[in-house]
Amino acid sequence: MKTITQKHFASDNYSGVHPQIMQALIEANVGHVAAYGYDEYTARLDGLISEHFGKQAVGYPVFNGTGANVLGLQSLMPRFGSVICAESAHINQDESNAPQAVGGFKLWTIPTPDGKLTPELIQTQAHGFGSEHRSQPAVVYISQTTECGTCYTIDEIAKIADTAHQYGMKLFVDGARLSNAVSFLQTNFEEMITKAGVDMVSLGGTKNGLMFGECLIDVKGVLGDQMKFLRKMNMQTASKMRFISAQLVCMLEKDLYRTLGTHANQMAQLLADELNAIDVPILYKVESNAVFVRLSKETADQVRQHYAFYDWQEGVCRLMCSFDTTPDDVMDLARLIKQATSPS
Q1: Which of 209, 237, 246, 341 could pair with 28 in a Cys bridge, judged by C-beta atoms 3.0 to 4.6 Å apart?
Q2: Are 52 and 217 a contacting pair, CB within 8 Å?
Q3: What is the 3-state secondary structure (H, E, C) of 52-113?
Q4: Tens digits of per-residue pLDDT, 110-130?
Q5: 0.90 cut: is pTM over it?
Q6: Buried/exposed 220-229: b ≥16 CB within 10 Å, e otherwise
Q7: What span, in angstroms and rounded, lies between the C-alpha atoms of 66 and 95?
């Protein structure tokens, strides 16, 4: 089989598995251990979740991001509850009918200029409480980082949490790129999530060097056994959970998550600097591993002969950097864009 070494800028899901993570999987693949999370790797993960998010926090490994979002949101609300989120939110734009069909809840969406919700925006949908004619807003959903690559400050998260709690709602954070946010803010999970008042967060792994797997975290540790029942009902209980847990342990144990998130962010900033130098318009602040640029169709088509990347909206492309993106990859992409945009 031909070895593929080509890098792309379409998604951090394109990247492979970090060598340390792969080694953790190999080491976990020895002998027989108890199934369904009753193993030493998941026990070690439990301890690391407490170290990073506070002693009260409880983690629940799951297969993927959509499953984590649906399960986490479902666990925070009654059957008649609904979710307030940005119009650009991943659960609204990129998870098909899963939130509605599997989760069974309605989404109240709000347009935003940069993917971020604010207390004022949340208040536009936080109404109708007590009326049986309106699905009851029960959870506020935000992504850290957002679908636009922007990053909430700790203060912004805290204010959103306060607003949600004032209305009797919970705050859920989709942390598919939580490691990138921690790196950008130069903080830690406890400061950014626990102390800010978040009720539940998904800790992303797949986009940051894992083969598969995320960890849903009950930050306040108040849900008890219901999470295990809901996880099973949502088909997110891994029988061989050690293989998810072992990866997450490797990611957290020596702060590998920070090393990988920082590198991906640095590559995005390098790309933004190179594109700024040739006057390519950048749509949003570069605060993670994503760079959104305005490119003509002709330019995008020409560059796509060498690198894959996604259209975000008409005339706007998303360029994603990964833990394994190199400066040479970035410089070559910038060279091709310059070549494609330069007058002939």
Answers
A1: 246
A2: no
A3: HHCCCCEEEEECCHHHHHHHHHHHCCCCCEEEEEECCCHHHHCCCCHHHHHHCCEEEEECCC
A4: 999 999 999 999 999 999 999
A5: yes
A6: beebeeebee
A7: 6
